[in-house]
Amino acid sequence: MADNNSTGLAAEMPKAWSYLDSMLVTGEAVQESTVQRRLFALLHRRALVAATSGRLIGMTRGLLGGFSPVDLRWQDIKTAHIKAGIFGSTLTVTALTQPDLASGGALRGFQFSGLRKAEAQAIYRICQAQEQAWREKRRQRELEEMRAKSGGFQGSFGDSAAVAGESPTERLQKAKAMLDQGLISDSEYETIKAKVISQL
Hints:
Blueprint: H1 7-12, H2 14-23, E1 30-35, E2 48-52, E3 55-61, E4 67-73, E5 77-84, E6 89-96, E7 107-115, H3 117-149, H4 160-164, H5 168-181, H6 186-198
Antiparallel strand pairs: 1-2, 2-3, 3-4, 5-6, 6-7
Helix pairs in contact: 5-6
């Protein structure tokens, strides 16, 4: 399950790599990994960060043994930032606490400091690509939810506005708020507005 970029890490930290490899599910592969520089781990064991095909994994090891993994699915990640210093890079990631909803939920933050620069930048690039892809997927899902709430469903259950309990004014205000937040385009707003007006 390991790739060529990670063979050096497997030789340098065999126990950590073995534990990481045991965490991978069937079909999941490590795309990039990095380890904390020794300079930043004077009072604790070094941390390991790996980007796999399905998630971001950060692991720290206790002084007396054992591993404490942090597991973030790509769809949970909201933002990723990197700060390059003289001796190492710091990767900061924020993730949603309620990832199965298109919006809402609180954010939790994770910081991995003292990482090797080139490898940390490669992990950051993977995080950015996944963040952008999932942001678009969440936006699409929010649009679908808004369309469903605004009467986008065409069925024989009666007036969708009566079922939802919302007046046309409320639906137009929600659509305008989504337009102002950049969640929908002008043409999508005009489509929603036309549907609401046609139901009057």
